[in-house]
Amino acid sequence: xxxxxxxxxxxxxxxxxxxxxxxxxxxxxxxxxxxxxxxxxxxxxxxxxxxxxxxxxxxxxxxxxxxxxxxxxxxxxxxxxxxxxxxxxxxxxxxxxxxxxxxxxxxxxxxxxxxxxxxxxxxxxxxxxxxxxxxxxxxxxxxxxxxxxxxxxxxxxxxxxxxxxxxxxxxxxxxxxxxxxxxxxxxxxxxxxxxxxxxxxxxxxxxxxxxxxxxxxxxxxx
Length: 222
Known about the structure:
alpha/beta; Rossmann fold; 2 domains; 17% strand
């Protein structure tokens, strides 16, 4: 159908080789390359938490997003993700729906409840699942997620969704509750570096020790 040729050569005990030739027209790659660079640049430096109990799914998300400049951290369960978001900031979360201990919906509800109680900045959460049933997306949005994508997904679609939710355009289009863009957050995060806790605190704009975060959270809940 495409005007090409296909050939195969085989040898017993060695294997087979397949060859094909196609005559394809030249195309102007300038626009597509430019567009790709723009999208990639918008993800550069983005810090994303991937929450999934499946190691292969986490690896796939890591490989797809690290290639376009994002920094990836991982958690295996919704409860661990809730705890980590209590001490670290992320630009977005990829949250699997079905996990054995705490699923993605319950984890997202817990994250939103804490953000509301402590008046923290809203962290975008994208639901990820192999389910594709009617009503699934609505269930994710009702739990507090910002968007929902079905596995397996294409990298370009995932990038589009990440850019959309991080910049708030999807929330505006949905017409839901407006996200709080400012508010107190923990001034100290865990770090793989060996810098002192006080230097990490200062780097996030807080001159006090990490204990100030605990005091702030205790006061907010008392």
